[in-house]
Design goal:
Radius of gyration: 18 Å
Structural class: mainly alpha
Shape: elongated
Number of strands: 0
Distance between the termini: 31 Å
Length: about 210
């Protein structure tokens, strides 16, 4: 209860949140304090979601992956706010986390990698934009730098932003015949996460 109060949970909501926290902790063998931290951190970002729904999503994420409650605590604190700001729903953010962990990334790497991947895919910098412009040209498609930036930022408006942007990157050859065109254009933390997500795109679609 003290953890929840410190996290800013209103007194009238304590019983509901405590019930959801206890259910999540029991279902995933996570300590109550860690469970409370994860749920309240996610709740701070996705304010329109009920605690019961968030607890269900977190439980599903752990059951479908090699993630732990402690690992999710770190991942949520590092990347949930960024994910939300680029249009990702809580379930989509958690699904990507699960896929990355199952792909072999360490829990600490999932948090930093996913955060950086989201930033770089949806807001490509000048270097990334130039590489994308060159790749589009190689495929016979003419897009200017500003058009590319608008296109990739536009993926945040899709029902599933990550799926949309990853499908475009795969169409451009990332993870396949165009892999060399993408070497060193993303930060190494982002590059590993993006490649793992593209490689496991079908798993991500199924998990979302």
């Amino acid at each position: 209860t003290q953890t929840l109060v410190q996290a800013g949970v209103l007194t009238k909501d304590i019983d509901t949140v405590l019930r959801s926290t206890a259910n999540f902790a029991q279902a995933t063998e996570t300590s109550l304090s860690v469970a409370a931290d994860v749920i309240t951190s996610l709740r701070d970002v996705y304010k329109d979601m009920s605690d019961a729904k968030l607890a269900d999503q977190l439980t599903k994420t752990i059951n479908l992956s090699k993630l732990t409650g402690e690992g999710l605590k770190t991942i949520v604190s590092l990347g949930a706010q960024v994910g939300s700001s680029y249009g990702l729903e809580s379930e989509q953010f958690l699904a990507a986390s699960a896929v990355l962990r199952n792909a072999g990334l360490k829990e600490s790497t999932v948090g930093t990698g996913l955060r950086q991947a989201i930033l770089e895919m949806f807001s490509p910098d000048r270097k990334t934009t130039a590489a994308l412009e060159k790749r589009y040209a190689e495929l016979g498609e003419t897009l200017t730098g500003p058009e590319i930036q608008k296109k990739f930022n536009g993926f945040t408006k899709e029902a599933s932003p990550l799926i949309a942007v990853l499908k475009e990157l795969r169409r451009l050859g990332l993870g396949g015949e165009g892999d060399s065109a993408f070497s060193r254009i993303f930060d190494i933390r982002a590059a590993n996460a993006i490649k793992a997500l593209v490689t496991n795109l079908e798993d991500l679609e199924a998990t979302e």
